[in-house]
Specification:
heterodimer; A: about 350 residues; alpha/beta; D-Maltodextrin-Binding Protein, domain 2; 3 domains; 3-stranded parallel β-sheet; B: about 375 residues; alpha+beta; 11 helices; 8 strands; about 65% helix
């Protein structure tokens, strides 16, 4: 009798160990952020306070822009509905704190990927959705055609909390030019001050210059100089420590870019299910089990393409058609002379 | 024994409670930061800041440390607060006294001034002065000279810089004059108390302040030259003044907004103080044969000051704290430089924000301590 009990307990213990083990492997694949997002019913996304083309709200509060589309893609993949996103406008100063404190789950706010940010402050960059570089805008009448014509005492307007302040210093120091940095908290204030003649030049990322130029009283009187003084790869950021969520955001973005590469867009995605190309079939969820790796169903990528569109569609809708930067430049696919290149979804 | 327990137990409990709450908050922050891979530490203060600041009272460049950037921001905050406190006090006293004037026009203009400036949010006033001024001021090349050598332009107010030779001798002479004045005052007080004689102390003081430094020019080898700002071309349409000192429009707008806004509150304090002294005091003073000037100086003001100082201290504290709105118009104060740029570059939010809060607390407590000391000094000393 006693023996039987002993045997029984050992069997139970063995099962318990097994169960515990399998439970642990399950847990490794689970994402707390994903679970909470599903429970909540919307993706919490941090965006800018208004940068046309990237993240900008219209009068009725609808957000548009390529940064916004990354969050929408994640919502489509995880919740099945690209509209289920709560956008939180953040200043450059607040953005990382909002993410690390758990107020938002994705930061998609034209944020430059740098070593110190990636390594230091509990953040993980998941990819690049826009290759940018810092430039200068000047008045056409000044006759300045290149940054080499800046003289000692040039006053430079810019806004706070971006790599621009560091790049600006590196640039002027290396050229041995003394300058007066006038640093505002918000972009709108920079525009107003530059417009009023407070500064000789306005510096920020070139995409930002192009977007802010449209807000000046006479946009045509201003010109963006050709030189680019820094590399600014902008991309979405997630909190460190949830690798599954990180993968979901990374591959949601990659799906959009790869869809453009294979010519899959929001209108033809359904038809592509019967394509002969296995890569395309994987991209629309008709082959393979790609979603299972993050605990998603198999149509996650199809939903992204159908509801948000591929990268090209997003760029055209938000940046090209709005006249901000009609020329895609480095943000063209690698197959068409740009540097947009993502690992294969397989 | 029983009494001691009764007295101390609640206090000990209260302290324990506060300590526990702080302990819990610290622990909580620590675990959360650990979980998110954020490390806590002040080591960054000695790192190179790599950013420049527009306006600084001390030598500073991007190769200096974050600690020095902090100092730059702190000094800029102190500068704007100091100038604004002085202007708002002068304005406040004038307006406060004007409100009590018997002249209808003066009285009502003062009242309108107070009602207007104190009822518009300060941030709006700062924006108004900054952008209105920027729009209204001329570009450097079109600026007319004020007083012949200063230029008010959209890029700042350019004034001649003073180039000193043997400045220290001049300063020592000034110091000597001040010490001499103190000695003279003590002597005059003693003379008045013991022999009832009056010496025109003010006249002598002014004389000392002028004559001693002047002597340093004649015999001390001190010389002063002015470097006058000159127009320089930056590009086809853009100019700047070189040489001299440039006061950025941000500083000017901030000082204007802060001092005009706070002066209304100071004016009300002054009015309350003067009205708080009962009429009988004035009549009694006049009846013992004091002149109207003596009545004001010896009877009314000492009593009014007692009422004026404590609420005015509050206004000075408010002004100092309000100066943190500077960040909105690009004046590089503590908040913009340290809690702004430095925070962004390092990501050390908790460290930097706590340093900044402690700094404001220290500034405010210092101002409060000085004003309390002054208040104690002028209090009624009952014997």
């Amino acid at each position: 009798m006693f023996k039987i009990i002993k045997q029984l307990t050992s069997i139970v213990a063995m099962f318990a160990v097994l169960f515990a083990f399998s439970n642990e492997t399950m847990a490794a694949k689970k994402s707390k952020t994903l679970e909470n997002t599903k429970k909540r019913g919307f993706v919490r996304c941090g965006v800018s306070q208004g940068l046309p083309g990237f993240s900008n709200a219209d009068e009725s509060g609808n957000w548009t822009g390529i940064d916004v589309d990354v969050c929408r893609a994640v919502a489509a993949a995880t919740l099945g509905d690209a509209t289920k996103v709560k956008f939180t406008p953040l200043s450059a100063k607040e953005r990382f704190t909002a993410l690390t404190s758990g107020e938002i789950d994705i930061l998609s706010r034209n944020t430059t990927w740098t070593l110190s940010r990636d390594a230091d402050i509990g953040l993980t960059f998941v990819g690049v959705n826009f290759y940018d570089g810092q430039g200068f805008m000047v008045r056409k009448g000044s006759g300045i055609a290149s940054t080499s014509e800046f003289k000692n005492g040039t006053s430079v307007c810019t806004n706070l909390g971006i790599t621009t302040e560091l790049n600006m210093r590196d640039f002027f120091d290396s050229k041995g030019i003394s300058y007066e940095p006038v640093v505002f908290e918000k972009a709108d204030e920079v525009v107003a001050a530059y417009d009023a003649g407070r500064c000789d030049t306005y510096t920020t990322d070139k995409s930002g210059l192009a977007a802010q130029r449209t807000k000046l009283s006479a946009p045509d009187d201003h010109v963006v100089l050709p030189e680019t003084i820094s590399k600014e790869p902008l991309g979405p950021v997630v909190r460190q420590g949830d690798s599954v969520w990180e993968d979901i955001v990374r591959w949601s973005l990659n799906t959009m870019i790869e869809a453009e590469e294979y010519g899959v867009n929001s209108s033809n995605a359904d038809m592509m299910k019967t394509s002969n190309n296995p890569a395309i079939k994987r991209l629309v969820g008709a082959e393979g089990e790609l979603g299972a790796a993050f605990g998603l169903d198999n149509d996650w990528n199809l939903r992204i393409i159908k509801q948000v569109g591929n990268y090209g569609e997003s760029y055209k809708r938000n940046i090209a058609d709005t006249g901000i930067l009609p020329d895609r430049g480095p943000n063209e696919l690698w197959t068409k002379g740009g540097i947009l290149y993502v690992p294969p979804a397989r | 024994m029983n009494n001691i327990i009764k007295r101390y137990i609640p206090q000990i409990l209260a302290i324990l409670f506060v300590v526990l709450i702080f302990g819990f908050l610290t622990l909580n922050a620590q675990t959360n930061m650990d979980n998110r891979g954020i490390d806590f530490g002040f080591g960054f203060l000695s790192q190179e800041s790599s950013f420049d600041v527009q306006f600084s009272l001390i030598e500073y460049s991007g190769s200096d440390s974050y600690a020095r950037a902090f100092l730059v921001g702190l000094l800029n905050t102190l500068l704007v607060s100091f100038i604004s406190i002085i202007i708002c006090t002068i304005l406040g006293v004038i307006i406060g006294v004007a409100r009590l004037s018997s002249n209808y026009l003066i009285k009502n203009s003062a009242a309108w001034y107070v009602e207007f400036f104190r009822n518009i949010p300060l941030l709006l006033q700062i924006f108004f002065w900054y952008y209105a001024a920027l729009r209204a001021l001329p570009m450097p090349e079109k600026a007319n000279a004020w007083f012949g050598v200063t230029y008010m332009t959209v890029k700042g107010y350019y004034i001649p810089a003073m180039v000193w030779e043997n400045l220290n001798i001049f300063l020592y002479c000034g110091l000597a004059a001040i010490i001499a004045i103190f000695i003279l005052r003590n002597y005059a007080n003693k003379l008045r108390d013991t022999q009832g004689k009056q010496i025109p102390v003010l006249l002598y003081s002014v004389g000392l302040l002028i004559v001693l430094p002047l002597l340093s020019f004649l015999f001390g080898g001190v010389s002063l030259e002015f470097e006058i700002p000159e127009l320089k071309k930056l590009s086809k349409i853009s100019y700047i003044y070189e040489g001299g000192i440039s006061l950025p429009p941000e500083l000017i707008a901030l000082v204007l907004a802060l001092s005009l806004y706070t002066s209304t509150f100071v004016a009300e304090c002054v009015r309350a103080g003067i009205e708080g002294v009962s009429k009988g005091q004035k009549e009694a003073a006049a009846s013992v044969g004091l002149t109207p000037n003596q009545v004001l100086k010896l009877v009314i003001m000492p009593q009014a000051l007692r009422i004026i100082i404590p609420p005015t201290t509050n206004q000075y504290l408010n002004l100092t704290k309000n100066s943190s709105l500077a960040a909105a118009i690009a004046y590089p104060d503590l908040v913009l430089v340290f809690a702004g740029t430095a925070l962004m570059q390092t990501g050390k939010a908790i460290e930097i924000v706590s340093i900044t809060m402690l700094t404001y607390l220290t500034i405010s407590l210092t101002i409060a301590a000085i004003m309390n000391w002054y208040n104690k000094k002028i209090e009624i000393k009952e014997k």
